[in-house]
Amino acid sequence: MWRCAGGVMETPLNCAEEQQLPPPLPDSWSTVTPQEPTTDRKDKGNAVGFVLVHAGAGYHSESKAKEYKHVCKRACQRAVDRLKAGALAVDAVTAALVELEDSPFTNAGMGSNLNLSGEIECDASIMDGKSLHYGAVGAVSGINNPVLVANRLLSEAQKGKLSAGRIPPCFLVGRGAHDWAVSHGIPPCPSEKMATKFSLSAYKRNKHKMELAEKVETGFNHHSKKRRQASETENGSGLLDTVGAIVVDREGNVAAAVSSGGLAMKHPGRVGQAAHHGCGCWAENTSTLNPYSTAVSTSGCGEHLIRTMLARECSSAMQCEDAHQALLEAMQNKFISSPFLASEDCVLGGVIVLRCCRYSDAQPSADIQAILVEFLWSHTTESMCVGYMSAQDGKAKTHISRLPPGAVAGQSLAIEGGVCRLGGCCSLVGSSGLRGVETEEEVEEVCHQFLQLGAAHPGLFSFFRPFSGSAASRPSTTSMVTWRREREEQGQRSESVWRNNCPLCI
Amino acid sequence: MWRCAGGVMETPLNCAEEQQLPPPLPDSWSTVTPQEPTTDRKDKGNAVGFVLVHAGAGYHSESKAKEYKHVCKRACQRAVDRLKAGALAVDAVTAALVELEDSPFTNAGMGSNLNLSGEIECDASIMDGKSLHYGAVGAVSGINNPVLVANRLLSEAQKGKLSAGRIPPCFLVGRGAHDWAVSHGIPPCPSEKMATKFSLSAYKRNKHKMELAEKVETGFNHHSKKRRQASETENGSGLLDTVGAIVVDREGNVAAAVSSGGLAMKHPGRVGQAAHHGCGCWAENTSTLNPYSTAVSTSGCGEHLIRTMLARECSSAMQCEDAHQALLEAMQNKFISSPFLASEDCVLGGVIVLRCCRYSDAQPSADIQAILVEFLWSHTTESMCVGYMSAQDGKAKTHISRLPPGAVAGQSLAIEGGVCRLGGCCSLVGSSGLRGVETEEEVEEVCHQFLQLGAAHPGLFSFFRPFSGSAASRPSTTSMVTWRREREEQGQRSESVWRNNCPLCI
């Protein structure tokens, strides 16, 4: 079922790993480490939360890497500033998005792609994991922060019905969305101010390219209506840099948001996944049905992401025990090999995902709860730019994840991630209540894992190894708990797989 | 978990049934009956297919019942005409929708609700279960058959990429959708011609009502920003008559479509479930993962249907063994009691659902396959108008399903349905290959059920009994196969439940 290119499938996993080592961990995440068990708990309690942002799954040139990373860093900082000020996840995620939209380097808000008519039309949506409310705008012009409109739609809907029992809208498009925004105090922005030199020159290039392609096609297919399939180069080098963010706040609430200028040269009125419920973002707090709170934001080809409802699918998958394995399988089975995209030979997209649960520290008091956050990103595009930061940290860490050399965009995937622990007591020894961890032995294993990670990487971060390849060569697990079970069941084989792939065993 | 009003919960099921007996079965469905085993098979093969339409879940007054039923009848006929001409499910479902949109009595296309500005803006979508492609338009003005635009978007997307490798859109809104439609040969219609006397007078009444309500609210809540909750009367009497259809064709392909003028007095640019992937309609052919082909179309409050993604949820539920039970649970757990609508005290919506599978007749030849169609409707609104017809039938059957007296709209539900067998040999004795039917004994049971139904009702229709009430009073099963298993496991109790509720046992 894996559609990887032959060369990639044959590449030993270790080679891929050597070529794509995880980025160095941030020094500034050292405020909470196992080495500092006496740090004041109250202060930390006031600065608990985590944000993960993306500046799109697409292609990020080395020459602009610095700008992409910089905007991600600023977006993380904005969200953390809000979290530190006591804001909940929805507000923090909105703040991150505003920063991402304001950057002229991203395809959202300011500097968005121009459509066929040379206009900017934006999509954005937001979801609150606590209330499960959702707000979205589609194809809206003249608003440089579409996420603010989505946020306002969400908050207005939470207030209840309008006059005469009318139900407030959760999704507005076009001129109506613009007018609603302005009437709710969101300032309009002249469209010409939202275009940048870069977006205007890209429009001219794209228009020329399109006219040329149509001439060639007319020449080739004068008597045929069959359409040309785009070459790999066209897709592979396409910029699909929708932006998004996911946040968990001090109360453990999650929120997700996404914003996009859409595909370059799209038809006016086209709405992509960024405005589509279940496709652009998803957030669900833990419940009796769901052991984990989950948040997801997507990027890539809107039509592929709509038809597969990738955000909701990934959120649902994250309820499985092993986060890394679950996302890997979701990206493979629900995206690259999805029956909804059976006719597509190049499936382009990326996701950022987090899941979290509370657990109690047995020492010194079981009353003190911390939040364990597992966060991941995965993409089938050539690259994806991400940034992440905890409220306990001084500055964000950023990273451009790339497919390994030789991997074919749209057919292979990369997956990376980490673990972060927020608040509570620093020592994990004897901790219990972690979801999926049942026996004392399992608790010990998890503690062992976290202590090693803590010692190696201040800030309690662990990076999963990036993975692109066939099912046969993938590590069967990434969770220590699952690994232990598998080792017992299957003997030495699983253990040796782990020795090659687990950061704890090397 | 059941939110039924006390009075309804206490109503004995049999009383509810007496008050809401299934409609008489159509005489014209007698072309295929167990009494006519020698009817020419070739002719029937050319006229195989089934359509189920709805003219909305909301409130259908007795005074207009005739018009609603009449338009459903015509819509069924249009779909069947296409099926008989050899069209596949997507074309047939589109034909049904065009008829529903053209009626001035439905809230879709011609005669749609007017928005706050006194304009008509329509939503529509369509899904093809074979290709799993989807096309939608939102908030489009000046097009009297929005479903034709959705259909065209779907078919254009199936042709592959546009010039220069651009991905064709699946969802267009507003002016852009209108212009795209016109450029693809769909005729525009002046907006003033789409409004009817009825929709214009309703707009004036609504506007007056709204202004009055706002004055009253301003008086009451001058110092408070808290919004008033609408009274039950306001919701209960609201017309929410989105239209839709689901079809299975001779090849067993399914398709679904939906079209709506949206809520009366909606904000311009508001898009409802009818344009939302997974919310307004869903269709999926059978696959290695899905034993049944399923198709769903919804109606009701768009925001509730978007947030619960009801169409996709019902489709997914239909893969369970017992169709009636699965829909009952989906409507209860994924809609009325959905965590996504936890803050809503009145959840308004309705669905039409079909699922089908092929099976072989052992006599006279195992090569001849028939299609078994189970079709149902369920609603939490006061009423829902439906029509259904097989290609083997001379005319359609229509029905307005209503909640039993005393049931509270938005908190209770009604569910009804039937079974239809398309094509193949008429005798069901010895049939095998039916999904979920494993043993010879089970096959015999199913055959027994169908033969009895066939004898009682020419056309092989069986109506499930309508059900509104508490979980405690509901029948535990509706499928004979499941019943048999339960009886063996649980003894006399299940059998006595069946004696009260199964149409075969009374």
TrEMBL record, chains A, B:
Recorded coiled-coil stretches: none
Claim: ATP-binding is one of the keywords in the record: no
Superkingdom of origin organism: Eukaryota
Region (Disordered): 17-44
Keywords recorded for this protein, A-Z: Hydrolase, Protease, Zymogen
Pfam families per the UniProt record, alphabetical: Asparaginase_2
Site residues by UniProt (Cleavage): 241-242
Single GO biological process annotation from the record: cartilage development
Entries under InterPro entries matching the protein: Ntn_hydrolases_N, Peptidase_T2, Taspase1
Start-end of Polar residues biased regions: 28-37
GO cellular component term, pick one: cytosol
GO molecular function: threonine-type endopeptidase activity
Annotated catalytic residues: 242
Subunit structure: Intramolecular proteolysis generates 2 subunits, alpha and beta, which reassemble through a non-covalent association to form the fully active enzyme.
Family, similarity comment: Belongs to the Ntn-hydrolase family.
UniProt protein name: Threonine aspartase 1
